[in-house]
Structure formats: C-alpha cells, structure tokens
Amino acid sequence: MPATADQVLDALRPVQDPELHRSIVDLRMVRSIEVHDGGSASILVALTIAGCPLRAEIQRRVSDAVTVLDGIDRVDLDFTVMTDDERAELRQRLHGDPAATAGSGQAQGHAEGRAIPFSRPGSRTRPLLVASGKGGVGKSSVTTNLAVALAAQGHSVGIVDADIYGHSIPRMLGTDREPTVIDQMLVPPEAWGVRCISIGYFVPKGQAVIWRGPMLHKALEQFLTDVYWDDPEFLLIDMPPGTGDIAISLSQYLPRGEVFVVTTPQPAAQEVARLSAAMAEKVNLEVRGVIENMSWFTGDDGTRYELFGAGGGQALAEDLGVPLLGQLPLVPALRAGGDTGRPITAVDPGCEASQMFARIAERIAVELKPKRVYHPELQIV
Ligand SMILES: Nc1ncnc2c1ncn2[C@@H]1O[C@H](COP(=O)(O)OP(=O)(O)OP(=O)(O)O)[C@@H](O)[C@H]1O
Ligand SMILES: [Mg+2]
Question: What is the pTM of this model?
Fold first, then answer.
C-alpha cells in the first residue's frame, strides 16, 4: 500500500524554504500532490519568484523528504511561480503591512513608513554596533568573524553593512547571491549561517556610491525595515570609519544598540577609538566593550612580535570603564579569508584567531547579556 497524498503532505511539513526558513507547506508553496501506482509521486511547488536561485536545493529537500515514505521511490517535481497577489499576501503574513504602522507618530526608532522592529520594547534582537574612529583597524573583519562565531554557537545572526561608501561585508562573508525581492520585501543572502544586507548588492561593481546625507539615512532605514530579518538574536552593524552621519541615524533607529569599539594596540589608534566612544555617548548609545585587533604576530620560531605596540586595548577599556573582550593576533589567513569570502572562523575554527573570536562571541552572548528589567509593581508580595 503506497503512502497517501495526505501522508506526503505531512512528510513535506518539516521541509523549509532555504531562504525564508519556514515550512514550504505553511508558506503555501505546495500546490498539488498526486501519488501514482508504481511508486511515484507528482508534486507541484510554487516558487516565490521566477528563477529562484535555490530551486535545486528545494528539489533536493522535497525528494529527500518524500522518498523515505513507503511505496514512493520517485518524485516528479514541477515548479510554478506565485502570482503578484500571492507574493503580496506572503509578504504581508511574514513581514506585516507597511501601511499599518505608517505615521503612528513615535519619534524614536521609527522610520517614515514602518516601525523598526529592533527598537520595539519586546524585541529579542540585540543590535551590536562595531565601531572605531579610525579606518583600517579591522572593524569589518571583526564584524564578519564575530557574526560567524555567534552563528556557530547556535545563535541567529544578521549583519547590516552600514559602510555605504566602503562596503566590504558581501566580499568578506562570501555571499555570492543578491537579495531576493518578494513584493518589495528583501530576503537577505546568507553564508555560514549569517544573513547580510549591504549597498554592495545594489550598485554595479566598481562604481562608487556618491550619495549625500539624506540618501544614506534612507538606505539605512530600508536595511532595517524592508529586509526580512526574521527576528534574529543578534544584528551586527559594521560601521564606517569616523564618527559621522551614519552613527547619528543609527542611534535614532536603534536606541538599544550596544557599541563595541575596535582598536589596534598603539596609543594613537586608541586615542582615535576613544572618539567613537565619545560619539556614542553623545547619541546615547552604550559602549559595552573593547576589542583589540592586530595585537601581535607570531613568527615561525614562535616569538610574538608586537608590531603595533602594546597595551592600547587595555588602556582604552579602563578609560571607558568597559571590559577588554579579547585581543586578536595578526594572521595572514584572516586577511586571506576576508578577501576570498571564506572567513577564518568558519574554515579554520581551531586556530588562535578563530578561538579568540569564539571567546569574544561567548562573552557578548553570555557575560554581557542584558539583564531583564523587572517592574517592581509586578512583584508578588
Ligand atoms: N587580525 C588581522 N590579521 C590580518 N589581517 C587583518 C586583521 N584584521 C584586519 N586585517 C586586514 O586589514 C585590512 C583592513 O581590515 P578591515 O577592512 O576589516 O578594517 P576596517 O576597520 O573595516 O576598515 P575601514 O575603516 O576601511 O572600513 C583588511 O585587508 C583585513 O583583511
Ligand atoms: Mg570596514
């Protein structure tokens, strides 16, 4: 007795759409199921968009789920594409209606059209802003590897590349696809368990972004509102160098943002890094920790060379009254991993730098976990 169509449907319930991470049955992608004598089943699946890049992955997942059933050893899978109305309905169910929250008038954390989900009081997402007053100290490398380390520890993680002019996260993370657009909702590409959005997906390669302030704000706002982040535990923000406009926008959009300052060990860098802390204070964001990068280089003979001096991270941490969360060595493989989209934390988790990223991730997730706010009026006496 071969399995029935109902049993096939049940077998498909745990199958998730690889981008939306929801059951394809709940997403109403499974359109028809027929079981035939002779051990085959015909299934029609509606893709969200034509030319869905993950079609082959969906095919594999569906076949794997169904061919384990008794009496079915072949699946004939056909694809169709959702209509505009179906996409609009799907977006509405997953992401809400922008019109519903428009103009409700809250100033803080509220963009023009839609509320920024991470500024709602009940949001579980911790926005982590990776900053430094100085360029080239490793903000983007730290953001990428920290995100990968958090994901490897089982957390759901996204990255917003807020460096509009000098975007580098797509290359460092190795996301080779563009975001999928479902009725104006952007589904961020994912690599190593980390989702990411960047202006890099929207400008042709090699072309410079030459926007003025208002356009930067608009882009950032869209990164926070029009992207289907799906309530991640951590949203890392790779900040541009300096202490400008973007920090001000972000502080309005993400009033619960936690700032992590990256510095190299020499006093000059530490002084500039202090500027970004001063900036954070001005816009009411809390600095939660310091990360020292390029702390030493270990030679073939095992000797540690402190190429950029020593002590800057510790001094800055003491100055700001926050912990020094870790010191990252200078390793060529870290740079190479950033250039090729194979972050060192993902491809060589056992090396010294990766272990330090894992340790920093753990400290942020556990040690720096915000304390729950208890309301005295709710106390039972
Ligand atoms: N610990 C490290 N070991 C080796 N190379 C590193 C390390 N940290 C960063 N780098 C390299 O240094 C360069 C600058 O790093 P990165 O782009 O992360 O800095 P940034 O602070 O984001 O720069 P920008 O201010 O331009 O945004 C990159 O080529 C990166 O691969
Ligand atoms: Mg950078």
Answer: 0.90
Pocket of ligand 1 (CB under 6 A): 135-141, 163, 166, 168, 241, 293-294, 328, 330-331, 334-335, 338
- Of 150, 156, 158, 130, give the one whose Cα is nearest residue 345: 150
- Give the pLDDT band of residue 241 (cuts 50, 70, 90): confident
Name the residue of 134, 140, 144 whose CB sits within 8 Å of the most ligand 1 atoms, as the mutation to test its pocket. Answer: 140
pLDDT in tens, 164-208: 888 999 999 999 788 999 998 999 999 999 999 999 888 877 777
What is residue 64's predicted lDDT score, i.e. its pLDDT?
96
pLDDT tens digits, 115-170: 788 888 788 999 999 998 788 999 999 999 999 999 999 999 999 999 988 899 99
Of all protein residues, the one whose alpha carbon is nearest to atom 23 of ligand 1 is 136
Q: Ligand 1: which residue has its CA nearest to atom 9?
A: 138
- Mean pLDDT rounded to a whole number for the chain: 89
Nearest protein Cα to ligand 1, atom 8: 138
Contact in structure between 306 and 265 (CB atoms under 8 Å): yes
Ligand 1 closest atom vs CA 333: 4
The alpha carbon of 19 and the centre of ligand 1 are apart by a number of angstroms equal to: 29
DSSP conformation class of 23: B
% of the chain surpassing 70 pLDDT: 92
Average pLDDT over residues 69-92: 94
Residue whose Cα lies nearest atom 19 of ligand 1: it is 138
What domains can be seen in the chain, in order of their start residue?
5-82 (3.30.300.130), 117-367 (3.40.50.300)
Expressed in angstroms and rounded, the spacing between residue 185 Cα and the centre of ligand 1 is 32
In this predicted structure, the answer to whether residue 335 has a pLDDT above a threshold of 80 is yes
Environment class of 9 (CB within 10 Å of its CB; exposed 0-12, middle 13-18, buried 19+): middle
**Residues with Cβ within 8 Å of residue 291, at least 6 apart in sequence:** 142, 260, 261, 262, 263, 313, 324, 325, 326, 328, 360
Are the C-beta atoms of 169 and 159 separated by less than 8 Å? yes
Alpha carbon distance 99, 76 (integer Å): 41
Q: Which atom of ligand 1 is nearest to the CA of 353?
A: 1
Q: For residue 314, report the distance from its CA to the centre of ligand 2, in Å.
A: 22
CA dihedral 162, 166, 169, 170 (to 10 degrees): 110
